[in-house]
Design brief:
Blueprint lengths: L5 E5 L4 H12 L3 E6 L12 E5 L5 H7 L6 E4 L9 H19 L6 E7 L21 H20 L3 E6 L1 E3 L8 H10 L3 E3 L6 E2 L1 E3 H13 L7 E4 L5 E2 H12 L3 E3 L12 E2 L4 H7 L7 H17 L1
Parallel strand pairs: 1-2, 1-4, 2-3, 4-5, 5-6, 6-11, 7-10, 8-13, 9-14
Antiparallel strand pairs: 9-12
Helix pairs in contact: 1-6, 3-4, 5-7, 5-9, 7-9
Length: 304
């Protein structure tokens, strides 16, 4: 009989971590989450072992991690990216601390969740072999973590893979993100400020993203690799807002009330050919289908 797979999800109480943990439970894996905060009531999963620790504190992290795991997925990191010290501490030092701890523990796979922001102002579609020039504390910290893990793979065969994500969306996402903000305001027929909506962004549904993580965990070819995960099909922000208005039949967007930053990329999306080839993966959920599922979730929540 095969031994039960054990996974440590760093940031397991967050939106992606919750959905990943839920899918791991369905596979009958042993799931441990480590995070700073306790899960929201709606994101609590009874079959998950919850640990609480700041991953930037190596001593405490070492004390918390007692078990051996087959897989590590690092979704952790400080949410307020304006705080430079905490952003670098969690997203870069936290990643270094985790890789140091698991370097000699014989793990099968370490998946680091990076960011499309690591490419900086490079023109889309982004390719993994682009020279990166990140332009924020968050994206620089992510890029330093990427470089550290690639070096560890080359020098010590540490089984790390880096996923660069774009906009992941779906049910249970925090209400401070773009889609939930628009959906909630439209459901409640409120006026809300927005930019002119002329930016293009890549949105991938949560189930497609979680499937990509599983593929990376199991893939030998993905070790030491950077992989863009998205749809490769950017959508205009204004069109997304109109789609939500059409489905909810309410809401009053105030276009142009939020100024676009001068350094903001107007068009951001990935080339995903490498992920398709190495992982034999591709997104299955169209944006229209995913959006309806997401809106239905928030409607049910509002009606409870």
């Amino acid at each position: 009989m095969k031994s039960k797979k054990k996974i440590l999800i760093v940031g397991g109480t967050g939106f992606i971590g919750y959905h990943l943990a839920k899918s791991c439970i369905k596979k009958r894996w042993g799931v441990t989450s480590i995070s700073v905060n306790r899960p929201h009531k709606k994101r609590y999963l009874k079959n998950v072992k919850y640990l609480y620790c700041d991953i930037s504190n190596k001593k405490k992290l070492n004390e918390k991690i007692k078990l051996n795991y087959h897989y590590i997925v690092n979704l952790g990191g400080h949410v307020n990216h304006k705080d430079k010290i905490k952003t670098y501490g969690s997203h870069y030092n936290g990643c270094k601390n985790l890789s140091d701890i698991f370097l000699k523990k014989g793990i099968q796979s370490f998946v680091q969740i990076g960011s499309g922001g690591e490419y900086g102002n490079r023109k889309s579609p982004h390719k993994e072999n682009f020279y990166c020039k990140p332009n924020s504390h968050y994206s620089r910290a992510k890029f330093l973590a990427t470089k550290h893990l690639i070096k560890l793979y080359k020098e010590k065969k540490f089984p790390a893979s880096i996923i660069r994500l774009y906009q992941v969306y779906g049910p249970q996402q925090d209400l401070n993100r773009f889609l939930p903000i628009v959906i909630e305001n439209c459901i409640n027929n409120k006026s809300f400020p927005t930019s002119n909506g002329n930016q293009f962004r890549d949105f991938i549904f949560i189930s497609d993203f979680v499937e990509a993580i599983f593929k990376v965990l199991k893939s030998k070819k993905s070790k030491g690799q950077i992989l863009n995960i998205g749809t490769g099909k950017p959508i205009k922000i204004k069109n997304i807002i109109y789609k939500i208005l059409k489905i909810t039949k309410s809401g009053k967007p105030l276009f142009g009330k939020i100024k676009i930053r001068k350094d903001e990329n107007k068009i951001t999306f990935p080339n995903i050919l490498k992920a398709k080839k190495i992982l034999r993966w591709k997104p299955k959920i169209s944006f229209d289908v995913g959006l309806k599922k997401t809106i239905n979730h928030y409607l049910k929540r509002a009606n409870k």
